[in-house]
Amino acid sequence: xxxxxxxxxxxxxxxxxxxxxxxxxxxxxxxxxxxxxxxxxxxxxxxxxxxxxxxxxxxxxxxxxxxxxxxxxxxxxxxxxxxxxxxxxxxxxxxxxxxxxxxxxxxxxxxxxxxxxxxxxxxxxxxxxxxxxxxxxxxxxxxxxxxxxxxxxxxxxxxxxxxxxxxxxxxxxxxxxxxxxxxxxxxxxxxxxxxxxxxxxxxxxxxxxxxxxxxxxxxxxxxxxxxxxxxxxxxxxxxxxxxxxxxxxxxxxxxxxxxxxxxxxxxxxxxxxxxxxxxxxxxxxxxxxxxxxxxxxxxxxxxxxxxxxxxxxxxxxxxxxxxxxxxxxxxxxxxxxxxxxxxxxxxxxxxxxxxxxxxxxxxxxxxxxxxxxxxxxxxxxxxxxx
Amino acid sequence: xxxxxxxxxxxxxxxxxxxxxxxxxxxxxxxxxxxxxxxxxxxxxxxxxxxxxxxxxxxxxxxxxxxxxxxxxxxxxxxxxxxxxxxxxxxxxxxxxxxxxxxxxxxxxxxxxxxxxxxxxxxxxxxxxxxxxxxxxxxxxxxxxxxxxxxxxxxxxxxxxxxxxxxxxxxxxxxxxxxxxxxxxxxxxxxxxxxxxxxxxxxxxxxxxxxxxxxxxxxxxxxxxxxxxxxxxxxxxxxxxxxxxxxxxxxxxxxx
Lengths: 386, 256
Hints:
The structure holds two protein chains of two kinds.
Chain A: H1 18-31, E1 35-39, H2 46-51, E2 54-58, H3 67-70, H4 80-90, H5 95-99, E3 102-106, H6 110-117, E4 125-128, H7 137-158, H8 164-189, H9 197-207, H10 212-231, E5 243-248, H11 257-264, E6 268-273, H12 292-300, H13 312-325, E7 329-335, H14 339-355, E8 360-365, H15 372-384
Parallel strand pairs in A: 1-2, 1-3, 3-4, 5-6, 5-7, 7-8
Chain B: E1 2-8, E2 12-19, E3 22-30, H1 35-43, E4 50-54, H2 58-65, H3 72-83, E5 89-93, E6 98-103, E7 109-114, H4 123-133, H5 139-146, H6 158-170, H7 175-197, E8 203-206, H8 213-223, E9 227-228, H9 236-248
Parallel strand pairs in B: 1-4, 5-8, 8-9
Antiparallel strand pairs in B: 1-2, 2-3, 5-6, 6-7
């Protein structure tokens, strides 16, 4: 940073892991008498859950510390995110899981699906059957039915209710939140960027289960500070630093090592193209359709996760983001044994190199620190070629 | 100006000094458990005006000598280009990793691929397998080349492959045939990387494993493409670092 500026979120949690801030907010909601539903994935329809007066809580999944315990049951050659999630539960160390009255999962990948089977007897758990060829009419009809079934589960478990008008209102509220988040991302699109990955990540993490109403004061203040940074000639990172877009699997906690290595190698991360980053905020739900649940189904099936096939939307959305953020290089982060992101990486690499003419690097990693120097060599070589 | 390049690899440390376009000094030592001390010993009494470090220990040296660093990939691209200006495909098999690098028409790095994070199919793998069969590193490729047929080694993990070798020898398999199987295993790994980054063209083969004549022969056979091994293949990275030092005069931001 060329000089110190006031953090976008300036509270007692600034500088620490973003989970603590979210936990404090959820504990407050809990005190107000709200129920909490634990979620693992971006396919859980936030609008519906909030409309029913329930707070979604993103469950812990990013620590290397819980993997050893998980491997007493799960195979070692499995995605670290799934192992970590399960390890948190069996060691009872995820405070969000502790706060949750129920858990919502989706049939995204095989590993998660089968892991969920091992935790369903611990808390009321609802698994949504996610269609994986999303552009077919039947897929939208099925996913609409699954969202209605989730509504039934939440009604039965919590005695919670939501009218179509209430869901419609929640859709409008989340659309406003997403629009404000996209305004935030515009400041990373500036050349030079005026915001680093840590602050972007803090905001995307906080906003994930939050309503637009709850996020509005935070985002208004953040946008004001970003305007001040821009108008004051502030720039994040060294002058002329290569701009990096990170795509792929969700990244957080111990996997943040990749972000740290990119910055240490002299890069500035301008786009976080993952469910843990920009993805939840890039698409809006249609308003005023008269069938808000179907509108939600259509919007959620547009999430370009690698569990979908052929997932052409991953590439079209990526093009949109590349054109906006203008990165000098793209890094695809694949978590070990995540077959769908790993295989899809070939298409992503071809797209980045051939369509956009940008250098591309795939990194396969887990949550341990054993490969930091190997990753550093690759990242430095990539940035040298920018 | 005397420009030095230091390549601190996982197994060996290499130093090259160039002056007026000529290599005036090359030195090599084992990295050991104390790479900084190994580098210091190598640099004892060597004079230079500017120095650049590369290899896995590059950042260690940066902290002690305050010298600029470049990645091994860039160093090998620079070194190979200087030795063989028209070559566009580089394979470097070192102690703990394998890199395949393709260069564009201007001789700049355009793409690279590396092996997974473990030492499967690298120099260390060959060392351990040679020891498991009771060969020295000099005898090992010669024995492999003398075999008429080979025993297939299925695992590329150093630990599992060693178990496989032990099982094969326990069954009475001929040592040279197991040796050839090991060489074939490492070669198929490397040619997969090469095919991914460059489907055609002569291969510039560097790194310690390029000293192994059997690997060289099998790569050429497997790819059906010529393979060129420079006279001192372990020095290519250090030479690249020295060339970078010469061009940038020790300034990190200058690119040759």
